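Section 3.1 - Work completed
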Amino acid sequence: MTHVAWDETMSVGVAVLDDEHKRLLDLFNGLLDSGITPANREELSALLVSLRDYVAVHFAREEALMERRHYPDLDAHIAAHRYFAGEVEKLHDDFGGDNTTMLRMDLILLLKDWFVEHIQETDALYRPYVAGEPAAATAE
């Protein structure tokens, strides 16, 4: 699997959201850099914690912004967020097991699918509603 490089076609038009998407991309690329091998458990644990933090903060910020801007597909977008958060929780729950290689592969696939399908396609749909929004700096 190859790295994904950020470019402006991925932008949703809100700097703080773009920065958070870039952070997710960095997590994904960092996971690829460390390889699909039995990883250092501490490294994998830190990555899962970072991903959980990303989910909590980023989704709240993004949803609040879409609500303020009356995004018409907000409910479907929230449902997609809840699905992803649930998948992250499942991976976190699986962390107690012995198969860190499989966990790492599952995490890579989840992040790849999320980045390609959600951020590049689904998030792009709300861009016209939020682009240039200066008030996205904090989640409500």
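Second construct:
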Amino acid sequence: MKKRQLLALLPMMLVLGLPVSAEQKASSDTPARVENDAQAANDLVNKLQGMDTVSASFTQSTIDKHGRPKVEKGDMQLKRPNQFRWNITAPFSQEIIARDGKLWMLDPDFKQVVIKKQDDQSGPTAVQLLSGNASAFLKGYSVIRMNYGPEEVYTLKPVRAEDLFEKLEINFSEGEISAISILDTLGGKRRIDFTDVTLNQPVNNELFQPDIKKLENDGFDIIDESNL
């Protein structure tokens, strides 16, 4: 099949995760969980909104509903509001870029670029959460927080039954984002671990604007489905 299913990568970022096991991290005096913690939700909003720019390397581990594993590595950059670049470097090359309401999916192996509306994706993604309006996003989710020494884990559960994921976890280590995990409603799991994280430093805007003319000259097929 020539056209790779690029959209399958978005709830990645997004992130169906290999959730961190509480039994592995928590001690015997782990506090009881609550349905929703308004203070935790407010603190999470402040943490996310305080990240104006993020640059990091990532390892994305996925297990589908049949138990098949997949690991991808790469780097990412994002800039509020709603700009990001997700660059997979192994085991294949692929780049996903978002800016100004458009989302570009570049596949060098097939020399193909698919362009879609940024808000036309099915379900939330981790990168959209990190680069978008965290306060508006979290209004649809209950939030609880667990502390494990220097690590904080925020667990989000949707209040709407029709959501595409059952649980999303955001990990911070010593105040710095370290992982995002998602469990979807079909049993798929995904976890993204971040390393070499740099916050609130200048990021080149050209990273969020593909050079379509150059790509065309290099022989890429441009498939524009954005209607913009």
